[in-house]
Amino acid sequence: MSTLVDRHASRENPTAPPKPDMSARDILAAAETLVPMLKERAVEIDANRRIPDDVYRAVQEAGLLHVLKPKKYHGLELTEHEHAKVAMTLARGCASTAWVFSILSSDNMAVLSFPEETQDEIWGDDSYATLAGNTNLNLKASTSRVPGGYRLSGSWGFCSGSDFSEWLIFNAPVGEAGEGHMFIVPAADAETVDDWTPTGLRGTGSRTKVVRDVFVPDHRVMRTADTVDKIQERRGLHPTFDAMYAPWPSYGRFTFAGVGVGAAMGAAEDFAATAGSTSRVANALGGTLRLTDQDYVATEYAEITGELEMARRLIEFRSREASDLAHQRVVLDEAQLAEQVRDNSLVARVALRAAQRLQMIVGAKAGFPQHSASRAKRDAELVASHVTLNWRQASVRYMSAMVNG
Questions:
Q1: How many Å separate Cα 180 from the centre of its chain?
Q2: pLDDT computed for residue 67 by the predictor
Q3: How does pLDDT run across 97-147, given as a tens digit for each residue?
Q4: Which of 101, 214, 285, 292 has the largest CB neighbor count within 10 A?
Q5: By residue range, what is the domain housing residue 315?
């Protein structure tokens, strides 16, 4: 496995920032052009549990990692609407690549909660630098106050995108009360535990990262509870960047759910492209049946694609709505937030059901990991399991907001 040092050393000419006049249409077109290549590489990515360097570089050079980045650091300052649509598009080719894109782009917003000194340190010399890690509080981690900062030790799993990130963010307890604080450390200061062997999203590189007695200066440490206030304070640094006016964490950011929908859509596309020449065993005594001759296949496929189209449209509607509200500097109330949370979780749930049903109409052939229906089902399962997409929690919150609002 190559390292960040290897990868940077192999760059004879550092990648230039994307053109500052790239439009939303340009970005979406760039994402679309990557889909055929991602479809070709998806089996390899799934099997190797890692995105190849050249695939990640293609995402970089397309300008996609600059969608949610301020103009000061050569970002495009596009909206959460484009962010969600790019993730959904990439996922039609490879859900793991789309997930890494969505995580690393979303984590740009975490960087923006830190002081200008920290932002300059991360992006001043390399606008392509990214932040990965895990912002869930690890009570087993240890911190100690020292002059100018802290010493940090601990391990954090599920660090999606960390194969490529120059920086990592971790949440660790500080002081006698054990209050959570965010720590940003160079990726070079962390060790990797190769423990990412899930059923789905296998290429995301969401491995455990370990730091041992690493010094973290004060400007890269922030009390977790202060995140919202700090983002609001930093708005003056990037006054034209609307995404900084979205709620934190941004419930309008449909990128995670969009990965599940895109994965199922991609598998449905593959099914349509091959169904005419595909058969399955007729019954236990043998024989074959053409899939396209079966009424149940037609009705299932029509319903699957119809529901995915509704999910796609809901993602696009909600993400555009959220972007418009951020542009208007509107502060959402609990009922609005709960409704967004509900729909965000709902589309992930729809995508999972669609992928499961698609695998069933394909038959036993979809049980092999190389089949796109198998990959879509496994990827959609992992997406729907994410903490931000918990359907039951979203439902309870929505009911409470409706009853008590």
A1: 23
A2: 96
A3: 999 999 999 999 999 999 999 999 999 999 999 999 999 999 999 999 999
A4: 101
A5: 255-404
